[in-house]
Amino acid sequence: MTTLDQTDSAALTARRFERMRPFGGRAAPDIDLTGLPPGPRWPVWLQSVGLLRFRHRFVPHMWRTYGDVFTVRVVPGGRPLILFTRPEHAKEIFAGDPAVFHAGKGNAILGPIMGEHSLLLQDGPQHQRARALLMPAFNGHALRAYRLMVEEVARDEVAQWTPGEEFRSLDRMNALTLEVILRVVFGVTAEARLAELRPCVNRTVNISPAVLLGWGFPRLRRFGPWKRTVVNAYRLDALIYAEIRERRQASDLVERTDVLSRLILARPEEPEGEASGGGCLTDEELRDQLVTLLLAGHETTATALAWALYELGRDSAQLARARAAAREGDDGYLEAVMKESMRLHPVIPMVVRTLTRPTTVAGWDLPAGATVGPSILLSHARGDNHPDPERFDPTRFVGQSPPVNTWIPFGGGVRRCIGAGFSVMEGVAVLREVLTPYDVSATGPDEPQVRNITSVPRRGARIRVG
Ligand code: HEM
Asked: In testing the pocket of ligand 1, which one of 417, 418, 422, 452 has its CB within 8 Å of the most ligand atoms?
């Protein structure tokens, strides 16, 4: 296995920028729009703004107006997006043939940042291979090994708080989950390297959709936010490739428990050179998967935690029960708190798949090129799925699970979130470290706001600890 020097690292970054264009530089394909499920006749731009900026009002409005299955049309090119809200329809989509229900294309906008090898961007045999190589780093055995490190990071964070202090819990949880990713996923513990990585990683996480959309126009990269993004990407890649290079040579590689070390050692089951692209992960693949895990796993978990603290801080009886669970080591109850937080406030609003062939879903004959997906937002808000759906009630998840495909914060099928177990483990560990010493109270109302792909608390889920 060859490794990289700095010049190679810069060349790889340049190649990624060259190859990864949002939407592949292609216009929207011609899709036959006749016979699609009902939807608004508004201009495409207005529907797109509704979906992308005001989804918490727009999507429920569509459901009330058009029913359980509806079509919205979005940019670029007025592509149809058909949303489903019933569990049996979610099941059909999750169980659909992965060769027909593609997920990677829908994430193409993330290409310049995540890279072509990213698990989120791949489909077919390449996705299958990458997933097989990544999965062992997220199984139950691996999670147990990460837990101690997560607890340590959480303890360090909480130790900085002072009784009576009020703050945006989202900001503190973001700082905490970033530290977890750097230590547990990247496996970096040297303070000097962490100090170099933190600002680069933060800038990567904060890239706006406008910058990504502008990527199709290479000339923009000489200006303003595009230029800063390019400079930062070269810097981050150099740091990551240096880390990979050093890790490959580390004498304690086999004893190390972080995700990167596990991925370096991961071996595919199929013989090398199979059609799926055999062999272990190259430096470029490792880089792309690390950045993917960083972007997929950091803000998502922080947001779920912030909502959990906010909801507990609004209800003294719920808080008392959760604090007792924290003190008694009742992780099952804290897990229920995390799950209910993700139900009431879905971090990601929907799961999407693009059809590669004409296909029937929920009795509707849909054309190739259409995008379909269960609405997580509506699945979690339906009273027939979750009685009294507006109420924060962790006991829904105590000693029972909601009916299958009614609680889908992590999507499903062959694309189900690879970090689902990780984020719940992390959430439980953090809640325990926070709630054992501290009472929390929410210091004002909050509501969801769209931030890129995720939905976050508009006011940062402010709490006071005491
Ligand atoms: C509250 C926390 C999280 C939420 C709500 C969440 C949600 C999701 C959702 C909805 C998907 C798409 C699933 C589908 O298409 O069916 C997904 C995929 C993914 N998530 Fe998460 N996620 C969370 C945390 C994490 C963490 C901690 C990691 C890793 C450290 C992670 C890594 C990934 C990856 C790599 C994928 C792509 C899987 C694939 O395409 O095969 N996520 N996540």
From this structure: 417
Question: Sign of torsion, CA 434 438 439 445?
Answer: negative
Neighbours of 179 (CB within 10 A): 20
Evaluate whether 191 touches 260 at the Cβ level (below 8 Å).
no
In contact, 386 and 408? CB cutoff 8 Å: no
- Residue 376, both tokens: 């997580």
Report d(CA 289, CA 143) in Å as an integer.
18
- Whether the model pTM is above 0.70: yes
* 19: its two tokens: 């190859």
107-144 pLDDT, tens per residue? Answer: 888 888 999 999 999 999 999 999 999 999 999 999 99
- Pocket residues for ligand 1 (CB within 6 Å)? 103, 119-120, 131, 185, 292-293, 296-297, 300-301, 304, 342, 347-348, 351, 409-412, 415-419, 422-423
Mode of pairing for the β-strands spanning 101-102 and 440-442: unpaired
Q: Which atom of ligand 1 is nearest to the CA of 412?
A: 16
